[in-house]
Design brief:
The radius of gyration is 19 Å and the shape is globular. A hairpin with a 2-residue loop joins β5 and β6. Strands 1, 2, 3, 4, 5, 6 and 11 form a seven-stranded mixed beta sheet that branches. The chain has a four-stranded antiparallel beta sheet with strand order 8-9-7-10. 34% of the residues lie in helices and 26% in strands. The longest helix is centred in the middle third of the chain and has 20 residues. With 301 residues, the chain is α+β, with helices and mostly antiparallel strands.
Amino acid sequence: MAAGSPAAQRVVVRAPATIANLGPGFDCLGLAIAWHNEIRVERDPSGDLTVTVAGQGADQIPRDAMNLAVRAMTKIVGEPRGLRVHLTNAIPFGRGFGSSAAAIVGGLVAARAFVPDAAAWDEEMLVDVAAGMEGHADNVAPCVHGGAVVAAGRAIKPLGVPAGLGVIVCVAPSSLPTEAARKLLPATVLHGDAAANAARAALLAASLATGDPARLLDATHDVLHQPARFELMPDSGRFVATLRKEGIAAFLAGAGPSVAALAGSPELAAATETARRLAPEGWEVRDAAIDPAGATVVESA
């Protein structure tokens, strides 16, 4: 919403799925993909807060002020009384595609449309508040900005939309809490492993910024966090290894257990078919475009 625009009475926001880490970029690289949750909010001054949910996780999500999207909204609008909130979720929970980031950022962007001083809530502020709720910025920053993003603490650098690259999304059939996957991380790592990962993360950021697919296989190799996590999700580990042997730049999607891969546009269809053929039983494999815009108001009145 532009500065000086009147506050909305109804708003619809689409928030994209995101993939964090992208292999070696642990807690600092993220990518938005064209796979969206939707949040619809209407003002109802005469009523209480109402929350309805459809789609993924509909039977698990709180329908009151504890709802994550509503909690995000309160950071901007304060007391949520008098709002009707409807969530339509396409992003599965606990699979590595930023469902919580989409809820938080979607709620913030929706709430911004309901206040007269919307200009004060610029993208930097949205990322800062969302990261405070999420714990880190590698999912929320691309959810706000779209495209690929480097998140180094509070310093955020959008890389834009890598032209000529696509994403292969391999959704595991069961979920795994991020907290459980994070507990497996070693307290210390070898200096050589840290240096190698830093080099590959830099190479990957350069490849994303330029849309160059030539080094993706090298650039997505990780030895810092994935080996420990694969102990808890062996199917994911075997699948990543199998895809990489086929020359596909595969990696754990966020904290897992799902898997994702990057490919040049000319190779994307063939690589997706290879991934579909080699996927463990019960996995869903699809290709996806990179979302260019991040969370977006698609309707406002």
